[in-house]
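Sequence in, structure out. Go.
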Amino acid sequence: MGAADFITKPAGSVSADISDVADQLIDLLASYGSQYARTQGKVPYIPEFFQKQRKLLKAESFVANKKADENAPVQKPKLDKAQIASFNTVEKKEPVVVKPLRDGGKIDVIAIGISTGGPNALRDVFKMIDPRLKQPILVVQHMPKGFTKAFAESLDKICPLSVKEAEEGEKIEGGKIYIAPGDNHITVVEDGSERKIHLTQDPQRNGHRPSADVMFESVAKVYKNHALGVIMTGMGRDGAAELAEMRKQGAWTLGQDEASSIVYGMPRVGWEMGGVQKQVPLMKMADEISALAREHLEN
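Output:
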């Protein structure tokens, strides 16, 4: 109905997954909370700060627990200004230069990889996408099984194009948006003159299924320089390596910029690996995708 993000409920009455859920909550709260603070001009957004802070707190709490009496409260360590300053230093890398094997051709497909911050970002993009868009769009949004069908249906209500959860073996048709089902990789296969969706239960890639890397790898193999790859807000590096492969094959590529990303992880690594031709703010992403799709509709 419009949630900004999600976590999965731990399984069973007593779940060993509860600590993982705690970590996910911390990551999401830190990401969204710091994004709000950053837009208010209060603090810089540095995800590494929250990761290091959490590790320090866990380590110190463990030691304190070992030493404390059973009923004694555990004192959480306080971070001084010097520690905080050290966390607020992120190394900026110059992007690798990727030399395409061929010039960019017409765009026959658009592939989008996205994670943390993705539900709201995709709403912003798809509600503004050109209704005359001719190319199909494949999307990997990191979501577990059971979320993606309802998510696709919610996007369909606000998007001028048809949005649906992808199904095994269906023909890829222009002007439609296909959301990878939770817990399934999405790939493209050729069946004679047709291109179809193939879903797999192959192992997770970069800790994810669906994985943006798996999708981009498939698109690079099948479409080569006749594709547009887009990497957007998200933690980690999923999609970065194979977006660079798409670029090597001659595909057009875009990445969300740092200022508009809830988490500048996936798009940052994509940029550093040379896979991103141009960085674009979220509010201009729909226009940029639409313009490229129109410009490169024909050879």
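Check: The CA atoms of residues 233 and 261 lie 5 Å apart. The chain has a mean pLDDT of 85.
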